[in-house]
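Data card: per-record layout.
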Amino acid sequence: MVMKKMINDPFKVTDELVEGFVRANPDKIRKVDGMNVVVRKDAPIKNKVGIVIGGGSGHEPLFLEMVGKGMGDAAAHGAIFTSPPPDLIYEAVKQVNGGAGIVFVYGNYMGDRLNFDMAAEMAEAEGIEVETIHVWDDIASAPIDRISERRGIAGDLFVIKGAGAKAETMADLKEVERAAKKVRDNCRSMGVALTSCTIPATGKETFTIGDDEMEIGMGAHGEPGVLRTKLKPADEIAQALTMRIIQDLSLKDGDEINVLVNGFGSTTRMEMLILYRKADMILEDKGIKIYDAVIGNFLTTQEMAGASLTFLKLDDEIKKLWDAPADSPGFSKCSKQV
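The structure for this 338-residue chain is written out next.
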């Protein structure tokens, strides 16, 4: 496949996308000079726990577009599919440090873990306390008895929302960490890829897949899934994803969940709604109530075709965190009236 993208220098796409993002949101976001670090306009906020998020480019709107009130306070943005270096993450920490500590929220990938851990050490050497939430919602990437080895995918949205909502209440560092981990631990995802994507710096596909094939469980960077098969109808795809998540999350009759249908980049809203339709039917049949549904592109993989489903199991606390207002360019939510 020949790469066709509206870009300039393929080695400057991250710099230029961050610049474009900041120019599009001057009332909400500011950028650190010379660094791909974006910060909410009113940060730092005294005595508020700072939520620092981040990861590689190529997944927009994650992560940089999820900075704002009730979400992340700052995001460090790396090159395409590449972790931001420690100095960017540390700068994000300094920009949002209000004296109450920092919580990191990011996907569970080795490069991110190494660089965020180094940044945490730099911050703690300066007397800034840091806690870390590794998002590991992708059930295809490891069995449940090795859940800490799982990858983070679209569940990042729910965890960032939970952490951001708790931090806005001016809760202390340990409470924000606890709440964010609770959301993380009640969140599961699984996806299906239909095509590969291309990386601007190489112009090549990250993997090969037949025109009549799909792969269940493929990761956000093209990591291998659990099953490659001929392309199935949407209802069969939704059935496969939904049933696996129900089992992994131990959902039962009477449970209440949020559902996220996330597009990988070139998937149409039509397709996402058709997937949601069948997932909703299955859940209804099993007596599992959907409290809220979110449908759209939140964790993309360049122009990959495909989608993922994410379920967040709710209780009163998690529901309250979800219902709290949020205002970021990539995700906003009005306070839900009871």
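Known properties of this structure: The mean pLDDT is 96. The domain at 10-185 is CATH 3.40.50.10440 (Rossmann fold).

See the next section for split statistics.
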